[in-house]
């Protein structure tokens, strides 16, 4: 008897190669990293805002690290499959991981920030750089909203399943 539930798709056989080149960040890296695909493949405007914010944060004695950034569609799919396994259903997994075709990480428009002190600093100062927390349940997930500099960040979604961009 198969241990794979009927509603789940098997991971690709090449799962083991979906590492750093596909956007995995095994160890947090600075936002100034020039070699890690998860950082260098971010949208240039997002990366620029992030680096300006990190420079200001350093002045306050706080470092911003990237725990996740750009991801290949294959890596995003792997994360989604892992979330379905962890949470028991696609519906529950959708509260934490978007599909490859709807993820802002795949397009390079989202970044996950750490450590906790960095997230706190960014939650207090991010709007000055257009960096906004998008999901209430993911205090590490930030996206660029240039209009936030003048008008503040938009209201947060409870989680990704409430974000219309993920409803495709």
Second-tier CATH architecture of the domain at 28-71 and 108-166: 2-Layer Sandwich
Number of helices: 6
Number of strands: 5
Record the strand order, biggest sheet.
1-2-3-5-4
Structural write-up:
The protein has six helices and five strands. With 168 residues, the protein is of the alpha+beta class. It has a domain at 28-71 and 108-166: Muramoyl-pentapeptide Carboxypeptidase, domain 2 (2-Layer Sandwich). Strand 4 and strand 5 form a beta hairpin. The longest helix is centred in the first third of the chain and has 16 residues, at 44-59. The relative contact order is 0.15. Keywords: Carboxypeptidase, Hydrolase, Protease. InterPro entries: DD-CPase-like, VanY-like_core_dom, Zn_M74/Hedgehog-like. This is D-alanyl-D-alanine carboxypeptidase-like protein. Residues 159-168 have a biased composition (Basic and acidic residues).
What is this structure, in a nutshell?
With 168 residues, the chain is α+β, with helices and mostly antiparallel strands. Helix content is 32%, strand content 10%. It has a domain of 103 residues: Muramoyl-pentapeptide Carboxypeptidase, domain 2 (2-Layer Sandwich).
Mind sketching the topology for me?
Elements: E1 29-30, H1 37-40, H2 44-59, E2 65-68, H3 73-87, H4 90-93, E3 111-114, H5 116-125, E4 131-133, E5 141-144, H6 148-151
State the main characteristics.
Muramoyl-pentapeptide Carboxypeptidase, domain 2, 6 helices, 168 residues, alpha+beta, single chain, globular, 5 strands, 5-stranded antiparallel β-sheet, 32% helix, disordered N terminus
């Amino acid at each position: 008897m198969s241990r794979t539930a009927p509603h789940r798709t098997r991971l690709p056989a090449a799962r083991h190669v979906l590492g750093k080149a596909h956007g995995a960040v095994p160890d947090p890296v600075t936002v100034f990293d020039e070699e890690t695909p998860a950082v260098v493949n971010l949208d240039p405007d997002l990366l620029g805002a992030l680096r300006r914010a990190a420079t200001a944060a350093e002045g306050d004695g706080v470092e911003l690290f990237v725990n996740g950034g750009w991801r290949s569609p294959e890596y995003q799919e792997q994360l989604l499959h892992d979330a379905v396994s962890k949470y028991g259903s696609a519906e529950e997994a959708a509260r934490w991981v978007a599909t490859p075709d709807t993820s802002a990480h795949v397009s390079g428009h989202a970044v996950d920030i750490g450590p906790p002190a960095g997230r706190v600093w960014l939650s207090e100062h991010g709007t000055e750089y257009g960096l906004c927390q998008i999901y209430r349940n993911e205090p590490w997930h930030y996206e660029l909203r240039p209009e936030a500099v003048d008008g503040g960040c938009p209201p947060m979604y409870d989680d990704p399943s409430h974000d219309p961009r993920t409803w495709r």
